[in-house]
């Protein structure tokens, strides 16, 4: 927990530091409990633990601070269902929750869906991966940092 005014209590000092250090175009992964966070982070991303948190509560807090990239097709991406889960008609209600939180944060672009192994490769290039306690299947989400309009100097 962070004892600062206006900072959501679910954001740890480590996560705040990572968000502050990220530059335009850097990505952060909010990973569900099934995601191979430690393995992916051996390739370079910073590993941040938030095991007791669900992704929607963390996403809402992160979106209060993180500007999303407006110069890309979509600044938010989820792992698409594998073909067998599509055939079974597996539902992903958590994606609707993400879309509503993104819309609330003024992001009007649709979630990008990325094939499973492509998602893993993209995660290896992320600035950080946050391991959460999210139990929803296909709960992982990648966010791409944008810029702040600081106006004239």
TrEMBL record:
Query: To which species is this protein native?
Result: Mus caroli (Ryukyu mouse)
Q: Could you list this entry's UniProt keywords, alphabetically sorted.
A: Isomerase
Pathway as given in its UniProt record: Carbohydrate metabolism; L-fucose metabolism
- This chain belongs to the protein called Fucose mutarotase
Q: Name one GO biological process term.
A: negative regulation of neuron differentiation
According to its UniProt record, the EC number is: 5.1.3.29
InterPro entries given in the database record: RbsD-like_sf (IPR023750), RbsD/FucU_mutarotase (IPR050443), RbsD_FucU (IPR007721)
The record describes its quaternary structure and partners as: Mainly homodimer, but also exists as homotetramer, homooctamer, and homodecamer. The homodimeric form seems catalytically inactive.
Q: Name one Pfam family in it.
A: RbsD_FucU
Q: Per its record, what are the GO molecular function terms?
A: fucose binding; L-fucose mutarotase activity
Function, as annotated, reads: Involved in the interconversion between alpha- and beta-L-fucoses. L-Fucose (6-deoxy-L-galactose) exists as alpha-L-fucose (29.5%) and beta-L-fucose (70.5%), the beta-form is metabolized through the salvage pathway. GDP-L-fucose formed either by the de novo or salvage pathways is transported into the endoplasmic reticulum, where it serves as a substrate for N- and O-glycosylations by fucosyltransferases. Fucosylated structures expressed on cell surfaces or secreted in biological fluids are believed to play a critical role in cell-cell adhesion and recognition processes.
The terms describing its cellular component in GO are: cytosol
Please name the gene that encodes this protein: Fuom
Q: Which family does it belong to?
A: Belongs to the RbsD / FucU family.
Q: Which reaction does it catalyse?
A: alpha-L-fucose = beta-L-fucose
């Amino acid at each position: 927990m962070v004892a600062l005014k206006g900072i959501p209590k679910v954001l740890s000092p480590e996560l705040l530091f990572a968000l502050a250090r990220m530059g335009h175009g850097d990505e952060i992964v909010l990973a569900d409990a099934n995601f191979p966070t430690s393995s992916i982070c051996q390739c370079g991303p910073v590993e941040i633990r938030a095991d007791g948190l669900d992704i929607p509560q963390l996403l809402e807090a992160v979106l209060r601070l993180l500007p999303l990239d407006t110069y890309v097709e979509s600044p938010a991406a989820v792992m698409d269902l594998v073909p067998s889960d599509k055939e079974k008609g597996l539902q992903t209600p958590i994606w609707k929750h993400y879309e509503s939180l993104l819309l609330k944060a003024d992001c009007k672009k649709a979630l990008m869906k990325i094939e499973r192994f492509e998602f893993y490769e993209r995660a290896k290039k992320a600035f950080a991966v946050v391991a959460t306690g999210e139990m929803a299947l296909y709960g992982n989400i990648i966010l791409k940092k944008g810029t702040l309009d600081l106006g004239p100097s």
